[in-house]
Amino acid sequence: MTFRGEPATFNRQAADWIARLHADDRTDHDKTAFRAWLDADPCHADAFERASAIWDSAGGLTAPMPAARPSLPSRRAVMAGGAALLVAGASSVGWRAANAGVYRTDVGEQRRLVLDDGTRVMLDTDTRIRFRAATDLRTLSLSAGRIDLDVAADRRPFAVQAGGRRVLMQTGRLDIRYDAGQAAVTALDGTARIETSGSSVPLRPGQRIAMADGRPDRVDRPELDDLVAWQTGRLAFRDETLAQATAEMNRYTDRTLVVVDPRAAAMRFTGLYRVGDPEAFARSLAVLLPVRVDADAGVIRISATG
């Protein structure tokens, strides 16, 4: 594991390591690099212990942490709730044939589909799409939500319509989100073109463009592992505010997280969380941050202490 942009504290590094060591795609190289980080400074072991205790308090996964060295106890999983997303179909890794043209997911649901041209699409929570294939063009309209799109090779270009923006690609993979007039498109593999207001902008692998009415388009290079974490039922937060994080978590559940006061809303943290269990998320925050959590059947309120 390499840190993209040096984390500000040992605690943040420790949180990143716990997330990485419990990722589905972890490697032996990650484990070796973790041991090297652990041995580099005595403060690292202390930070790892603190981070592990916090993540345990959230009721993490059941898989044990790989032993780093004899003096360090193993720990259970990441800052996570136990609830997994609902995935349509008999298997969470299966792809269902899609023929009707219009598809949607409910809150807390994900679906994997194969369109009739061979393109694979994964729908995130509360997402709606429509697909049409003509003799000269394939078109997918995203009216709300988020998708991962693996475009099959074909002589016909593939167009994605999201609000007033159009994305064109021949073949490749995209992450696309559209909510309330704001769109974000990331080229995970292959090059796309973004068409808007009569202009065309190339989007190269690893680039993301954020577009919204009334402001200039912005292009950056996000951390791709964090960006696609939603596909495994997790959300990655890196130095994000509590207000931003709760808004994201609320997309996956009808039990709403409410940040009561501006001081709590402005608090920043880093972590990897499972979606679908807002109370476990809030419980871990109460250990990590100076906040109080009050929960009832429909709402979980988070407020600053002191």
UniProtKB/TrEMBL annotation:
Keywords: Membrane, Transmembrane
Gene3D superfamilies the record matches: 2.60.120.1440
Keyword Heme recorded: no
Domain FecR N-terminal: 12-53
Domain FecR protein: 102-192
InterPro entries, A to Z: FecR, FecR_N, Ferrdict_sens_TM
Pfam family name, one: DUF4880
GO molecular function: sigma factor antagonist activity
Positions of transmembrane segments: none
Protein name per its UniProtKB record: Transmembrane sensor
Organism: Sphingomonas prati
